[in-house]
Amino acid sequence: MKEMMTLSPVTGEKLEDMEQRIEDLLNYMEEVDQSGYYPQLTVVRSWSEHNPRISGEFAKPRVFSWYLSREIKRLLLKNAAIEVRPSRKKIALNDPVLLDNLDEDVWDFTQKKLFLFRAERIDLSIDRLQHYTGTPAEDFQRYILFTNYDMHVEVFKRKFPDCVQPARAGVQMPAYHHKLDDNLGVTLVNIGVGPSNAKTCTDHVAVLRPDVMIMVGHCGGLRNHQEIGDFVLASGYMRSDGVFDQILPKSVPLTPNYLLNIHLQNALEKFQLKYRLGTVYTTDNRNWEFVKKRTVEEISMSRSIAIDMESATVATNGFRYRVPNATLLCVSDKPLHGKPKLSGAAQNFYNNSKEKHLEVVLSAIDEIKRSNPAGLPNDSLRAADEPLMGGI
Q1: Taking the model in full, what pTM does it have?
Q2: What is the rounded distance in angstroms from the CA atom of residue 81 to the CA atom of residue 45?
């Protein structure tokens, strides 16, 4: 195995030649990984006066090779040079020392997005993701949908009968992958109910650097003029889920990706569906109606139009890990207006809404692919002191 491999810009180089050199570099990264060492990737930016060399370690680079290939290509086109060499010996996942290298409290979250996750975290998250979803991590696509209903899974499987499915029964968060070349397909994960599950899954999905995360769920409608079956497109979130209170202050504002919301709104308009834009209130208490007075006070102050148990949690991790995200919900009940979620009415609603719900989201993703083939801009998710890779 080579001690180091370098890619430098080549003036007048054909695009296919550059792509072949990038593929050779990624193969070398995988070779280093397989040999028991973390591959360290260094970007040399000659134009940067204060920070010309930026580096980070990786694990299992084959799993998200589409992302590495895209980012390395962008850097070469800006005349950066790329170096890869073996770094430290890999830490076994059952070594207690591993946890000392995973502590997010000592991470620098203003790291450039290419180097956001440490190698140990990548390694462990990929292993856990495969355990929870029952599918190989490399099967995950760029566009990831989260649901907590089997009916959305049924619709997805009918639409994509050849999708990759869990290899074993009984997995906690089964995933289904409509695979396309270069990971341009769609993944649906049934995360189950509640913000804890939403955090667990997005913690690990984020290391794959997806282009999009969308929560596709149901909600309680909170306004008089909403009807069962209406859609809710989140424009903001009221965080009452409690999951991140010790990690990210509740005073930090969270909003969905603007362009992603525009595409979802266009799809709703195309299908002539009734919807409202507004704040989604996310709670960790499924029986919040039992403390109605306290909850309704917060709902009123926040001007929320819908209540659920996962949306703000997904959005928070999208914000923390810089993944463009959005929420499209469908009103399944109106607990404040004498229409609680009861078994019979709920089943009728599910049967009438499940096809259209996924159809809207998949239509929006098709538009995103056409208008932003290199991924949605996520400048708004960067910290103020974190310049772009092409900056100084």
Answers
A1: 0.91
A2: 7
Beta bridge partners of 128: none
Number of folded domains that form the chain: 2
**Does some domain include residue 125?**
no
DSSP letter string, 306-331: EEESSHHHHHHHHHHTT--EEEEEEE
- On the 0-12 / 13-18 / 19+ scale of CB atoms within 10 A, 262 is middle
Residue 143 β-bridge partners? 186, 212
Residue 213's domain spans which residues?
134-375
- Is the domain of 355 the same as that of 240? yes
pLDDT at 260: 96
Summarize pLDDT for 111-152 with one digit per residue, the tens: 777 888 999 999 999 999 999 999 999 999 999 999 988 889
52 and 200 housed in the same domain: no
Mean pLDDT confidence for 262-277:
95
Q: Locate all alpha helices (DSSP H) within 116-240, ordered by sequence.
A: 119-133, 150-159, 195-205
- 121 within domain boundaries: no
